[in-house]
Amino acid sequence: MNTNINKYKIVFCGNVNTGKSTFLNIITTDNYFIDTISSTNGIDHCTYYLDNTNIKTNIYDIGLSNSHKYFYSIVDPYIKNNIDHFILFFDSTDCYYYDNLIFWFNYIKKFSNGKITIIGTKIDKKNILKCKNLMDPLTELCFTNNINLYLISNKNDSQKYLRDLFKKIIS
User: Fold this and answer.
1) What is the total count of domains within the chain?
2) What is the pTM assigned to this prediction?
3) Which of 25, 35, 149, 156 could form a disulfide with 142 if both were Cys (CB 3.0 to 4.6 A apart)?
């Protein structure tokens, strides 16, 4: 048995109610989508060993909104502390989250060289098309900065698909 463990520090970040905690719950437990999962206001942490691998991930779930400005002093050490990968989440049904996604992107780039992936959630909802005009600038941001963009439904995508996606993102 290989006893070498590859360790990764990963930060899930984005505004509250963008699906970070739900995604984390789906990939790290046997639970699937739970409508009543509580939002992360501040920072949550878990350690997760990827199935059938020697990869240990320390995942920090950081959920803030513009009204939580006082939390940024708490967040700074996590952003600046040798993070391997940032996964930025946004609610694809609400155009408000796009501006906040740009804020998070600039905030991370200011302090870190960690890899960035962007995940848009809630694609199962009917009002996703109201933000369609933001896809071009988002695609351009991703292309210019070599960032992968995924659009998912925590509610409708299978647990296996979401776990496989997470493995793909961090590998």
Assistant:
1) 1
2) 0.82
3) 149
